[in-house]
């Protein structure tokens, strides 16, 4: 179902009037994790002012260590919904277990993180949902495996899948991951689904978010997802790669110019 040879027309996914794919570019922005009502609302207002089309924020966090901040879960979901109401921005947030689906009723796009790309039971459950799924590439998975995971969701009847390249594990350790820029044209040749890039998790370092965003646009991505925090030094998760609202606004100006050019 994801195969371009069988379905040559690009899929355009409409999220509350924001189109992604088929020449429509979107920016998703917000904090890695929802930390408080104040933080979420403030960042939401800031990214909206800067021109982001969708708001992100994690309530269920798949952390490497069980002793790291795990997210505000249910309470965080309520804060994210409040930020959605306050700004009118559609929201994107990660699901870790299908059991939590009832909490996602007013979520606009459900994210599957890198660590769950091959959680086939979860993918099957999301195949029954009538909402777009943002499927992130596993950090050590091939493009074929990513497409097969999209196929799991689509096979269940949900054909609204957005693919996301977020960096892969390589021998290079200077960055958190290595952005596989080649994944964009390759995926676009194989599938009609929208392909977006997450430069924040690929880089792991703030200063690289902008050049990787520009590279993603040049390579033909249908959007980017960027982490923004109102106080990155104090962030409970991923502060090093988070942009300040000011630097995000600067980046948005360049994104607007560059997407026009391409
Ligand atoms: C995230 O988007 O916050 C996240 C956890 O990303 P990834 O699954 O790509 O690590
Ligand atoms: Mn993060």
From TrEMBL:
Protein name (database record): 3-deoxy-7-phosphoheptulonate synthase
GO BP terms, alphabetized: aromatic amino acid family biosynthetic process
Keywords, sorted A to Z: Transferase
Coiled coil: none
Domain of life: Bacteria
EC annotation from Swiss-Prot or TrEMBL: 2.5.1.54
Domain named DAHP synthetase I/KDSA: residues: 17-259
A GO molecular-function annotation: 3-deoxy-7-phosphoheptulonate synthase activity
